[in-house]
Specification:
By secondary structure, the chain is of the alpha+beta class. It has 6 helices and 3 strands; from the N terminus they run ααβααββαα. A 3-stranded antiparallel sheet has the order 1-3-2. GO terms for molecular function: DNA binding; DNA-binding transcription factor activity.
């Protein structure tokens, strides 16, 4: 995963309302949750909810699907796992003393070596 992709996802999850929405969507599982149910649970105005769902969708954290008149939000678990993996892959990497791994990681991020 590119650092900019991870940063976008983390930025969108960094807002308290979007994080609350996303937690509801993730809890619902692979079938998703109706938008109206999110609105009821969190007591959010429809226009505000729509704005936040749009932000989460643009970060590839969720998608929407329509069944009849009901609009569902569905978490993109693969993308979420990618973001988590992006952070986990870096965990304690410098403790190993593996300079080749550190160099490879910095090269992938296009960051200057320090």
């Amino acid at each position: 995963m590119q650092i900019t992709t991870a940063a976008k996802a983390l930025k969108e999850l960094g807002h308290v309302t979007r994080l609350a929405i996303y937690r509801q969507v993730v809890r619902a599982g692979h079938q998703g949750i109706p938008v109206g149910e999110i609105q009821e649970r969190l007591d959010i105005p429809g226009s505000t909810l729509s704005h936040h769902i749009s932000s989460l969708t643009s970060a590839n954290l969720l998608t929407q699907r329509r069944e009849g008149r009901t609009l569902y939000c569905v978490a993109q678990y693969e993308h979420l796992q990618g973001v988590i993996g992006f952070l986990q892959d870096e965990c304690c990497i410098e403790e190993s003393g593996n300079d080749a791994e550190i160099s490879r990681t910095q090269d992938q991020e296009n960051l200057p070596l320090s």
